[in-house]
Design goal:
The complex is a heterotrimer of chains A (104), B (471) and C (458). Chain A contains no helices and 10 strands. Chain A is mainly β and 104 residues long. In chain A, the strands form 2 sheets. A 6-stranded antiparallel β-sheet of chain A has the order 1-10-9-4-3-2, with no helix packed on it. In chain A, a hairpin with a 2-residue loop joins strand 3 and strand 4. The model of chain A has no long low-confidence stretch (mean pLDDT 92). Chain B is of the alpha/beta class and 471 residues long. Chain B contains 15 helices and 19 strands. In chain B, the strands form 2 sheets. In chain B, strands 1, 2, 4, 6, 7, 9, 11, 12, 14, 16 and 18 form an 11-stranded mixed β-sheet that branches. In chain B, strands 3-5-8-10-13-15-17-19 form an 8-stranded parallel β-sheet, covered by helices on one side. Chain B is globular. Chain B starts with a helix and ends in a 5-residue tail after the last helix. The N terminus of chain B is likely disordered. Chain C is built from 12 helices and 20 strands. The chains are: A mainly beta (104), B alpha/beta (471), C alpha/beta (458). Chains in contact: A-B, B-C. The interface between B and C is medium-sized, with 35 and 35 residues.
Amino acid sequence: MAEWVAAADLTRCPPGNMLGVEVEGHPILLANVDGDVYAVEDRCSHEDYPLSDGELEGTEVECIYHGARFDVCSGRATCLPAIRPVKTYEVDVRDGTIYVRLGD
Amino acid sequence: MPQNEVIEGLGLDEYKYGFVDEEQHVFRTRPGLDEEIVRQISAQKEEPEWMLEFRLKALKIYESKPMPTWGGDLSELEDTLDQIYFYVRPSERMGTSWDEVPENIKRTYERLGIPEAEQKVLAGLGAQYESEMVYHSLKEEWEAQGVIFDSIEDGLRKHPELFRKYFATVVPPGDNKFAALNSAVWSGGSFVYIPPGVELDTPLQAYFRVNQERMGQFERTLIIADENSRAHYIEGCTAPVYSTESFHSGVIEIVVLPGAHFRYTTIQNWSNNMYNLVTQRALVHRGAAMEWLDGNLGSKLTMKYPSCYLVGEGAHGSILSIAYAGDGQHQDTGGKVVHAAPNTSSTIVSKSISKGHGRSSYRGLCKVYEGAVNSRSNVECDALLINETSRTDTYPYIEIEEKRASVGHEATVSKVGDEQLFYLMSRGMSEEEAMALIVRGFIEPIAKELPLEYAVELNKLIELEMEGSVG
Amino acid sequence: MTEASVIETSAPAEGVTETLNREAVERAAAQEPTWLAERRAHAWDVYERTPLPSTKLEEWRYTDVRRLLDLDALTPAPRPEAGTGEALLEGLDGLPAGLRAVMAEDREAAGHVAIVDGCVRHVDLSDELARQGIVLTSLARAVQLHPELLEEHLATHAVPPEEGKFQALNAALWADGVFLYVPAGASLDLPVRVSRWLSGGGLAVFSRTLIVAEAGARVSFVDEIVSDDLDAQSLESSVVEVIARDGAQVQYVSLQRLGHRAFYQAAQRTLAGRDATLDTLNVSLGASVARVDLNARLLGPGANSDMLGLYFGDGDQHFDHNTSQDHEAPNAHSDLLYKGALDGHAHAVFRGIIRVHEGAQGTDAYQTNRNLILSEHARADSLPNLEIEADDVRCSHGATVGQLDQETLFYLMSRGIPQQPAERLVVMGFLGEVLSRLPLGGVVDKVTRAIEVKLRHG
């Protein structure tokens, strides 16, 4: 089972905000939805652009490049031109630090 | 005031009251585009707050996106965009005088045998009242079945929930610069809903609806074909549409729910000062089928790639397209099919003709995602060149991630063969007649799919276009 | 502030590293004639001001060099020692065993060249051919012996540095390469064989090939590159310039069998004069990443180019073939056929364009790309393009992506052939079509064997 890895200080990703980080070579998008932090792959499933360049609205991140949207909780694509989901990661917040589990 | 000038300038008394609705408040925005203008448009339409916000956000996206550097030459478009009126109420837009309509367009109408009243409609001079009766009787029949066929404005007003559920989910403002522009300033277009299981034999024709809100510069159409329904929508016409406006940027969104079958036919023949940049896309669910039949004639530059996103198992997409690029025109058209579910199938057939210094380009995408097993796609592009100076290009993108898929693309380029011409001329035809016959034969596989009146007009139009093409 | 100081204070140009820099170019040019030193310096200027290709560029859309290549980790391979002119003809014994094994199969040849890490270590050509005026030598030596020919043709009208980032880098830093000159009317019955070896990881190898066939000359050239699997990434950069004058007949074959972690980058251009025939075959089997740019220019009326390609990818191999057929004269003919099979997680990109320029009436141009996907995770992208600016032409292209022909497979199995060998037969039958169109001695066998090895391991 993969280890928990520190991704960022919670202060860098306050509620309603997102943050793109690189964790052990994986681009990861952290999104703070009303105090709950979610993590998905920071790469749009449409043309691979970073989602962290876009905007967070509620639970949805919108890719700035072609308008595709994803639910940050489930990774599901909610608007064309994206069809496929983005990968999600487990998140834990302890002592003001956001940890993610990279999986196998 | 423009209103008075228009009426006086017409000199055609019988139309004086025919097209200016005295009770309607005449309104148009000043040239150019900014937040204030977007607010004005939304206020004019008395829209809900969410739509205003949607428009304003789209404006920001439009402003942040660079002009595309691919496709056609858009280098002069920036200047055009500074000068155009982004919103003109329909009554105002019709304020052109018959005298201003270019001679060649008038001649074409006559040669095509288009009735006078219809000529005025095409030239942007009036609405076609005769068709209203036909439309009304059909409309009653449709309403009895629960079909909604309204202007897009009425759709938003009368069916807010249905509208909001699907609007901009197929083409989001961020998709491309012109989708963003349309999202900011859209006006006119259709809202269509076909209830589950309803099958319509008579095509829904936007043509019938001209009196409500003429197809605008930034028309927006949203169509939802509910489960197991079947319908055909037709818009546009083969005769040249004259407009003083030089920019048209539409967005057409179609949602084809499971088991439904929808066909969208559009033939557009813009006058050759027009930039025609359209995003039209269908989301096709399980067991559903979408067919685009797309004809592009005229315009200065058309960039238009009807798309089918096949997201449900067994979905089918088909795109048939004809492009005709006359002297000085560039048709950059094609189609996109995206296979994202098993057992999906698609076909694209594209035929283009380039004449004089005309240029037609096919640009297409066929994408098969991993997991879309047993998907099949076939693309055929044929280009016909009439003159030495004519040009054609083919730019397909084929992206295949799935082993159990079968994808083929073929394109050919040819010119009208001397042998064919000599043979036909030896049978007593003039060279121009022979040329027209060969061109008609070339597009026949697609023309035969058109409604009869369109096919007849298209044929006549080709005859006209082939005049002066030889020698 | 002067312009120069502005440049100095700005951020370093992309792709300039601890070892790939202007000093390296100056060292390379130290003992060279002025024209060549200037040419290198100019190429470096072009390199510095050309950004590293990104996937936002159409031609690099599917090959992310920024992710796939780490220039900072590379050191240019040592250059040939100055004055090695006569020491070239070293015995084959000193060569790496892997290279000797490759060469052992190539006895039938008009001449041989052996190259290790871009430096020529051995050249032989029969006396009889030399007497006809045929020249086969290292590029470093040709600079001294044939300066006029090199000054005219090297990195000028075939592959100038302005063609792109890698082309500029190669023109600035090339260490050595092959020069073949065939005078008017001379004819070689057997191929010239070049065998290259890449010895290890962490290297950047820049090598060039210049082939000039004068009017009516006839020659074929087989260029093979091989290595073991590497412990770290190496860049093998190859620029190939082939010039066929009026009526000349040239066949150029490239056979790439590099090992894992090699990044192979090749830029090839062929210039075909009036009634010349200039055929090419590119076989890509090895390397982790292989990017091949081939541009065939048909410059004289009646010129003819057959362009063949074959690739077989497995593991995580990434192949990107980018071809163009430029018809710049009337009545020329070109026919391209690239076929590939993809196993494992391999990804192949084919982008090809036929350009029929204004006035190139009577053009016949064809382009076909066919892909076979053998595994769940393989991927093929195909972009066959046409740009036609003349009307009296016959042009067509076709592309397919699909799986093994099931009917043939069932037929073979119904005749008692087990599934795996039957699949191998179908794949070989599919790819064999390419080889059968340019059956140079030895190449067909070598490629067939290499593919069979891959199929067994797959």
